[in-house]
Fold:
Amino acid sequence: MILSIESSCDDSSIAITDIKNKKLLFHKKISQELIHSQYGGVVPELASRLHLEALPRILAQTKEFFPKLKAIAVTASPGLSVTLNEGVMMAKALSISLDIPLIGVNHLIGHIYSVFIDKDVTSDIMILLVSGGHTKILNMQNGYQNITELATTIDDSFGESFDKVSKMLGLGYPGGPVIEELAKNGKPIIDFPIPLRQSPEIKFSYSGLKNAVRLAILENKYSKEDIAASFQKAAIEHLTMKLKKLFKTKTPNNFAIVGGASANLALREEIEKMGKKYKFNVIYPELKYCSDNAAMIGRVAVDMYENEDFVNYNDLKVQPRVEFKKEVL
Ligand code: KG4
Ligand code: ZN
Structure:
């Protein structure tokens, strides 16, 4: 069994995963969303202090598994360094005291593996990763060691743009679920510009759209619901327009949407339509595994364990940013 720890942002989570059959045996998460909500976003210093309380509280519930543990896994990159440190410190202490190997996991690979919890890995898969910190199209061939990046954002991420629009409307954090809910009761009557519409390049940008929403709010003539519906439509259309461009040169067999914003049902619906048109399978994580969690980290760790992909505690450092190898289209 592997014990995995996630603390890259505002969720404290620990999981236990069986190495042989990849099944999740224990999973617990304490989310700090409500506390950060009053500040309109994650406050790193506060998040770090809350991990310090929450992680040991969850760990205490896993003691029965300790004798059977074969490795300790932890998210080491990317994320907020002050919060990553909390999980990494706990993981190093456990690895030293139990005398078992340490595995450092990339959080973004964790999101990809959120679709493989309790399952084998799909060998050939294209991924749309939409979270608070990232908007990327990735390609994975035969597991985590062979991931390439096809496209990324040049400024804000998809999830972050929902957070910022929610904040501008005076609503809570995280903005994604709030805006999605509001949008259900609104009409997309505002014609927001689709970012990079004329550009032939496959890349994303959300800062211009965010500014257009700010100006529309200042006009004071639209309801929050209509602003949310119009913004969400443009934000999703930007993704689907770029994906269509990509599918002209590269059509996947399997396509996964992962990351916190993969919970957005309007986005899922549009990707489903594309799946029918371009004939690929669409794969999502279960809703409970879309946002940050240790179950996805544990699932990557099982594959890393099998490859003996361990790290010495002296060498495991947190990295706020990581890059994937770029694939030229
Ligand atoms: O993956 P995640 O939990 O944390 C990061 O690694 O960033 O993603 C959180 C992000 C937040 O920006 C949140 O607003 C967004 O995912 N999100 C959504 C939805 N649910 C969460 N964005 C759009 N629609 C949603 N339903
Ligand atoms: Zn995440």
Residues 9, 131-133, 159-160, 162-163, 174-177, 180, 259-261, 263-264, 291-292 surround KG4 (ligand 1) (CB under 6 Å). The chain has a mean pLDDT of 97. The radius of gyration is 20 Å. The longest strand covers residues 24-31.
